[in-house]
Amino acid sequence: MTRSIRVFLTALLALILVPIGALIAQGQEIYRGSTVRFIVGYSPGGVFDAYTRLIARHFGKHVPGNPTVLVENMTGAGGMVAANHIYNRAKPDGLTIGAWATPLILQHIMGNDAAKFDGRKFGYLGIASPHDSVCTFNKESGIRTAEDWFASKRPLKIAAIGPGTSTSDIPKILKGALGLPMNVLDGYKGGADARLAVESGEVDSFCGPWQGVKTVWRNAFESEKIRAVLQATVKSHPDLKHVPLAINYAKSAEARLLLEVADSAYGAQFPYSVPPGVPQDSLRLLQRAFTDTLKDPELLAEAKKSDLEIEPIGGPNIAKAFAKLYELDPAMIAKLKELILPKKN
Known about the structure:
By secondary structure, the protein is α/β, with parallel strands linked by helices. The chain has 14 helices and 11 strands.
């Protein structure tokens, strides 16, 4: 390497490092002695809550100034209360981070008046892991296979949190695309409450992300009180090779497209975000801290012990993916409205 090239590379490195150094110094002023709050839109004990508490335990040491980090639960309307709060009421000071589900963006796109936000205007930190929706049934339901479900003489009762969550929207899309017999019962405060309803026999089934189900519902699966019957993703999860894919039962192009949209819209369903108006420098700092947290050896060891998958996707990529949802064909938006938009009384 010639001296001129070394000088050039040194100068280039300096240009890269100076902004980062300035960003860290700025972050120390903002975050030293401060408290960062993660606001989870669902009840304690669910998968999103579990991921958030894991991240929160390690997040502070990766933020300049080492702030205190707290987790608060703000339930209501399937996470809509929390999403609206982050967008409209939280100060854009980088001290409040929202944890709510991506499908709420679809609710906004479809014209749900309850969605008081624009999904393109949040600042996204990223997601901890993609999620693969799977429908599970208790033993009492008598449903052991997807074929049992198709052949059922009664509509199966599905526990769901509410519109704008995969627990509600995915089964409704499955019903519309495949004609599966079911009644989706919205209104559970979180995944923990819905799973309890399945275990008690109050309902037959719960459709939720496998990454969380296998962690927080492990005992029920290992004792075969609960059985995974149908995957709502386009590709099988490695743990579920024996469980069929819903898309393989699609009998029309529209049905396939519905299931493909479900996979793309709900696969990155647990983003972490900050309110619109957070300065770009602060957003960059938080995105970097989020990425570093998910690389932290202590977090990874804890996640492995808890069987929480860590396969992060960065904020900028998430923002691009969510922006594309706003480009859905009007005919598909109309069909989604028919299937999953809450009916007005």
